[in-house]
Amino acid sequence: MNHITASFSDPVHSAQQSFRTLLTAIAEPGTIHGLDQGMQFAPLGASLTAATLTLCDNTTSVYLSHALNQESVRANLVFHCGCTLVAEPYLADFALLTLAEFTNMREFKIGDEAQPQLNCTFFVQVDTFGQGTHLHLQGPGIQTTRQLAIAKLTDAQVAMLQVNHQQFPLGYDTFFFSKTQVCALARSTQVDKEAVCTSQ
């Protein structure tokens, strides 16, 4: 039990607040929101920790990438969330990754025509927002266009997000977490590197 750290100080209020933040982030793709409930399961940052406590429970399966698959993370997820940790990507409801490991997503489930909601959702830990290639976003939840920059996002990762959009309504939804902030790209979001418009 040495690896167990504190959870939400006010579980109901904190979970509700975090859920509203995450819901707003996916409903308004590319918008950046503060998410910090004052604790973390290192090496997960505060925002990613809050998201796992909010969305992962005993009905969900979680995949941890190599960099995040540490005893402190495993112990706290099982203890606080009750989720099932899986080693096989195709079994995961949620996948926790670093940005460098956000590469080949073909092994994860994208849903099917009858049940497109049975997909994997990615939680990707990043350094910061506002730096790097500016993405041009369009789609549901965006009035006209919106810009987003994620530090160290590669051209190959942008192409992967574009392919994901082409699979809609199948595909995966992706949340990006800096230390204390979150933004999201839904599978319905069109991503283009040629960003020339001001955020809406």
Walk me through what this model shows.
The protein is α/β, with parallel strands linked by helices. The protein has a single domain (11-192), classed as Bacterial phosphonate metabolism protein PhnH (Rossmann fold, 3-Layer(aba) Sandwich), CATH 3.40.50. It has 4 helices and 10 strands, in the order αβαβαβββββαβββ. It has helices at 11-27, 46-55, 71-81, 155-166; strands spanning 33-34, 61-64, 84-86, 94-98, 121-125, 129-138, 146-150, 173-177, 181-185, 190-192. The strands form 2 sheets. It has a 7-stranded mixed β-sheet with strand order 1-9-8-5-4-2-3, with helices on one face. Strands 7-6-10 form a 3-stranded antiparallel β-sheet, covered by helices on one side. It is globular, with a radius of gyration of 16 Å.
Q: Would you summarize the structure shown here?
A:
It is built from four helices and ten strands; from the N terminus they run H-E-H-E-H-E-E-E-E-E-H-E-E-E. With 200 residues, the chain is of the alpha/beta class. The C terminus is likely disordered.
